[in-house]
């Protein structure tokens, strides 16, 4: 193998405006459940990074993440940005799962602790997000990224801004 051996990864997604419109017309939990049932597609970032939401409850999100070498940094491990994206997704969606129709959120702050290197050999990982606090204007959530045996690879906390969404 030489430095010039090329690999390719093709990412496909649907128009994200369908999701944006649905997000404004549904409660957060109904919106996320519609993704689980296939009534709504996963957002483009899920296809790009390889996250699949598979569990939704009020204040809780579960997802699978399969590391891929296209996510590697120059030293041969999954880039911290990919891990941060996975954790930002589950903690943000955990907050979203508790919002009524007409309310939305955005990340104000995200702190990630990466405890172990992630490689393709690590195998599928489990990402979970759980709301710690939901107020009128802010929310706080935590997330974890663990392997099949429960070993912790990364942990995150977030603060989100909660606000009225636009209706059109």
What can you tell me about this protein's structure?
There is one protein chain. This protein is of the alpha+beta class and 168 residues long. Helix content is 26%, strand content 34%. The protein has helices spanning 16-25, 28-37, 44-49, 80-96; strands at 51-57, 60-65, 103-114, 125-134, 138-146, 152-164. A six-stranded antiparallel sheet has the order 1-2-4-5-6-3. The termini are far apart. The model has no long low-confidence stretch (mean pLDDT 95).
Task: Supply database-style keywords.
six-stranded antiparallel beta sheet, 168 residues
What is the tally of beta strands? 6
Show unreliable segments.
none
Mean pLDDT: 95
The strands making up the biggest β-sheet line up spatially as 1-2-4-5-6-3
Oligomer: single chain
Major sheet description:
6 strands, antiparallel
Question: Helical proportion?
Answer: 25-40%
Shape designation: globular
How would you classify the helix and strand content by structural class? alpha+beta
Number of helices: 4
H and E string: HHHEEHEEEE
Radius of gyration from the CA trace?
16 Å
Distance between the amino and carboxyl termini: 53 Å
Name the beta content range: 25-35%
Give the structure's gist in a few sentences.
By secondary structure, the protein is α+β, with helices and mostly antiparallel strands. Helices cover 26% and strands 34% of the residues.
């Amino acid at each position: 193998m030489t430095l010039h051996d090329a690999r390719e990864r093709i990412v496909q997604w649907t128009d994200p405006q369908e999701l944006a419109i649905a997000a404004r017309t549904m409660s957060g939990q109904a919106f996320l459940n519609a993704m689980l049932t296939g009534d709504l597609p996963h957002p483009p970032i899920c296809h790009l990074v390889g996250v699949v939401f598979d569990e939704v409850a009020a204040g809780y999100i579960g997802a699978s993440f399969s590391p891929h070498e296209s996510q590697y940094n120059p030293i041969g491990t999954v880039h911290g940005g990919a891990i941060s994206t996975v954790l930002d997704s589950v903690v943000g969606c955990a907050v979203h799962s508790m919002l009524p129709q007409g309310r939305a959120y955005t990340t104000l702050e995200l702190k990630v602790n990466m405890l172990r290197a992630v490689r393709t050999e690590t195998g599928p990982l489990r990402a979970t997000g759980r709301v710690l606090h939901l107020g009128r204007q802010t929310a706080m959530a935590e997330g974890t990224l663990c392997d099949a045996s429960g070993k912790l690879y990364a942990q995150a906390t977030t603060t989100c801004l909660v606000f009225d969404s636009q209706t059109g």
